[in-house]
């Protein structure tokens, strides 16, 4: 496979960037966001680290809690129906921060587009949202090495009657295509020649599944893990096999990772060291598997590769 080409991406579906529908959950997210904002205001006296590598790790150990920026995106980081923080990134953060001597993690929900500004304005300590690593983002924050890699997949009618297995198939077959608000899959479809104005943009993966089931579109494009998850309870739809979309003629495989303020290299390096141990032992897959991740999403991609350096 040719080396992947890197472009500005969300962690896939935004991916996949809206919470699942439901008044209760939206109200809960709003309340938690307000609480997070108050918490950030209360910590406004904390200055940027003055020593090489930053002092945040020491402060987190003393406080016993790390604040995580999350974007309400299943399965990457969200608040569940019981009001509990969960998702692949928060669960992995719990494991790693406990190993670093930080007992608890606390969610600070925000919009996906506000994650990097919120991190850099110290509203929270780390972005735990499965964020794709891109050269553009590497100019604003520092990333740990990716904890997963991701391909795309389609939600289609059972049996995939139009044989849609790539964006090229969608274009050639003049199929009706949907994807989510802000999803990286918008750019993937456009790169294959699909007109962006012809895409049906829906709020989230549940709306995408509904559009396929109702026959309003032939395909809903998402990350492979999102597509697999959303069709589990469907009697009329299925997910295609994962595939690497072609962008500028090259297969595109993205990697998601935790983001830190640029001054906090000591925390990032300590986090990375624990992440490497989890990868080597196989425990990383155990942590991520409940959220639909498989061996295919495990990766040895590095942040240096994805940042373009």
From TrEMBL:
SUPFAM superfamilies associated with the record: Periplasmic binding protein-like II
Regions crossing the membrane: none
Gene encoding the protein: ehuB
Protein name: Ectoine/hydroxyectoine ABC transporter substrate-binding protein EhuB
Ranges of residues in domain Solute-binding protein family 3/N-terminal: 65-295
Keywords: Signal
Alphabetized SMART domains for the sequence: PBPb (SM00062)
Pfam families to which the protein is assigned, alphabetical: SBP_bac_3
Region (Disordered): 1-23
């Amino acid at each position: 496979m040719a080396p992947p080409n890197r472009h500005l991406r969300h962690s896939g579906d935004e991916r996949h960037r809206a919470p699942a529908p439901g008044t209760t959950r939206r109200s809960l997210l709003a309340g938690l966001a307000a609480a997070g904002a108050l918490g950030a205001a209360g910590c406004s006296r904390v200055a940027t680290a003055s020593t090489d590598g930053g002092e945040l790790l020491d402060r987190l150990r003393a406080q016993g809690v790390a604040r995580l920026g999350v974007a309400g995106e299943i399965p990457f980081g969200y608040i569940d129906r019981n009001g509990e923080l969960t998702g692949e990134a928060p669960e992995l953060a719990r494991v790693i921060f406990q190993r670093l001597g930080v007992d608890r993690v606390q969610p600070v929900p925000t919009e996906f587009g506000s994650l990097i500004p919120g991190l850099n304005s110290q509203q929270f300590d780390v972005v735990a949202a499965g964020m794709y690593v891109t050269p553009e983002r590497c100019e604003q924050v520092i990333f740990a090495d990716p904890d997963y890699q991701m391909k795309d997949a389609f939600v289609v009618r059972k049996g995939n009657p139009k044989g849609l297995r790539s964006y090229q198939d969608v274009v050639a077959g003049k199929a009706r295509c949907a994807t989510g608000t802000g999803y990286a899959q918008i750019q993937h479809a456009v790169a294959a020649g699909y007109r962006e104005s012809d895409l049906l943009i829906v709020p989230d993966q549940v709306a995408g599944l509904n559009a396929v089931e109702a026959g309003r579109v032939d395909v809903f494009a998402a990350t492979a893990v999102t597509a697999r998850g959303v069709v589990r309870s469907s009697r009329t739809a299925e997910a295609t096999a994962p595939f690497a979309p072609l962008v500028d003629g090259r297969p595109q495989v993205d990697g998601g990772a935790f983001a830190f303020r640029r001054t906090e290299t000591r925390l990032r390096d300590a986090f990375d060291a624990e992440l490497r141990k989890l990868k080597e032992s196989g425990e990383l897959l155990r942590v991520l598997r409940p959220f639909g991740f498989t061996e295919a999403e495990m990766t040895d991609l590095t942040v240096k590769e994805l940042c373009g350096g």
